[in-house]
Amino acid sequence: MDALTMAGREAGVNRLIQNELPKALFFHCASHKLNLVINDLNEVSEIRNTIGVIKQTINFFRESVLRRKLVPNIPMLCETSWSAKYKSIRIFSQHYVAIVEALEELASMESTSNAATRQRAHILNCATTSSSFIVCLHIVAKYSARLEPVTNVLQSVSMDIHSVHDHITELQNIFGGHRTNAEEQFSDIMKTASEAADHLNVLISVPRQVSRQAHRQNYRIQSPEEILPRGNICAILGLAYCFFGSPLL
């Protein structure tokens, strides 16, 4: 079972057992604990939307043999297999430019028999070239790459606890340092994101601002870089640092 099924507060296995045995204690395995913490990133709307667009784009290309030939082979983004999820995000990020170019090609096809394909390709092309998506993709890819080895080791048949402990301690120091120097880290991410955007002739712009906003971030900024100290990267680093700062093994 996946971590959410086990830990669900309303209908999870944890709740069902505690209904019968109120004094029973529930503990996650280390891998499930990591997955639950990362799953909390879905509370950040931009991150949640980015993951959703990645998943839809991968599914779009995998649905057709002809479309598969246009992009590198990308495994399905499985919500319950975190090692596979990290791998999908990593490969998608590595081939992001090629994927967008393939979407542009499909969206401009003149064959009337592929009207539905053109429409979906156009929608996904618009979604994958938005400023928010490009920046969030590089944020997620950067830290997924850090977490992927940990997940793989925690799920391995033979696990060297000492090596895992050393690796997690190193990650704790890395995330703590990134959290302290968030502006510097975001500058590096923005540089990479801007290079990808320039290659696609996309301009990374400031998110839309309104006088009052209750359901999304609405920072008073003049340039995309200024959003960092109050933006999505802080949420990722905060959750990751809280996780690695707590007992794991």
From TrEMBL:
It comes from Haemaphysalis longicornis. This is Uncharacterized protein.
